[in-house]
Amino acid sequence: MLKIGHRGASGHEPENTLRSFLKAIELGADSVEFDVRKSKDGVLMVMHDAAVDRTTNGRGLVKEKTCAELQALDAGLGERVLTVLEAVEFLKGKARIVIELKEPDTLPSLCGVLDIAGPWNPRAITILAFDEAGFEGSNSTWNDLAEFKKIYPHLGVILLFSPYKLMDPEWNLEKVLRTAAEMKADAVAPYFKMVTKEMVDYVHSFPGNPLLIFTWAVDEQGDIERLRQWGIDGIASNFPDRLK
Ligand code: G3P
Ligand code: CA
Q1: Does the Cβ of 32 fall within 6 Å of ligand 1?
Q2: Best probe residue, ligand 1, of 2, 3, 34, 48 (max atoms within 8 Å of C-beta)
Q3: Which of 3, 216, 218, 238 to probe ligand 1 with, by most ligand atoms within 8 A of CB?
């Protein structure tokens, strides 16, 4: 089971910072997840929210600040807001890098960053996205994942989904898995409260195209153990030390 530090070790350190990434690795994470948004001047930044208010001492939207303005903020305990290039250069060779696209139109820039910092071993980089405009501030789509996989077949792609995806009458689990299979994705990742043993087995034995199943934001030991027993392939936790 892959042990993914969610926004680093964000239960211990300021999320999405170098300090958080280092802590995740020290605590035994084999992978580090972070979120990506674009600055006003088009630089890819490691930020979860559309606004800087919750995670820094600033106010306002990420997209209305330049990279220099964002990097002048305090992201907690004196940490800087990172560019994605800084993040991948720091993590390269230390952990698998799991990058969540939070916005549309970030893929070309991301490819540019990965090409500068590469080459990358197979699965050294995995890209994630929801396909649910507005879910938890995300506005990305699985189309970006399909494009990414065409460009970098050796790197990973995971389709994130929440309960809202399956509430959409146009979608069901089978269609999600078919979509994942068609783009040659590596895995799907439902929110952990949706996961059942039957779902894990179904994903693993999806006819013609078995997939892996990951999940995220699992912090309680009981939940982690149950998911592990069901055969989940990867968990992202704010406390990666609990994934041992
Ligand atoms: O790893 C997926 C997970 O990070 C998605 O949710 O809101 O924490 O980015 P969020
Ligand atoms: Ca994320």
Answers
A1: no
A2: 48
A3: 216
Q: Which of 12, 48, 154, 204 is catalytic?
A: 48
Is 48 designated active site?
A: yes
Q: Which homologous superfamily does the CATH classification assign to the domain defined by 2-243?
A: Phosphatidylinositol (PI) phosphodiesterase (3.20.20.190)
CA 207, CA 173: separation in Å to the nearest integer? 13
pLDDT tens digit sequence for 76-131: 999 999 999 999 999 999 999 999 999 999 999 999 999 999 999 999 999 999 99
Residue whose token pair is 């170098």: 18
Report angle CA 127, 155, 89 to the nearest 5 degrees.
Answer: 75
Sequence-ordered list of residues with C-beta below 8 angstroms from that of 178, at least 6 positions apart, any chain = none
216 within ligand 1 shell (Cβ under 6 A) = yes
Band of residue 134 on the pLDDT scale cut at 50, 70, 90: low
Q: Please report, for the chain, the start and end positions of each structural domain, with discontinuous segments joined by +.
A: 2-243
Residue 98, beta-bridge partner list: 33, 126
Please measure the distance between the N-terminal and C-terminal CA atoms of the chain and give it in whole angstroms. 10
Rounded to whole angstroms, how far apart are CA atoms 179 and 11? 33
**pLDDT for 14-38, tens place per residue?**
999 999 999 999 999 999 999 999 9
Q: Catalytic annotation on 6?
A: yes
**DSSP bridge pairs for 4:** 31, 236
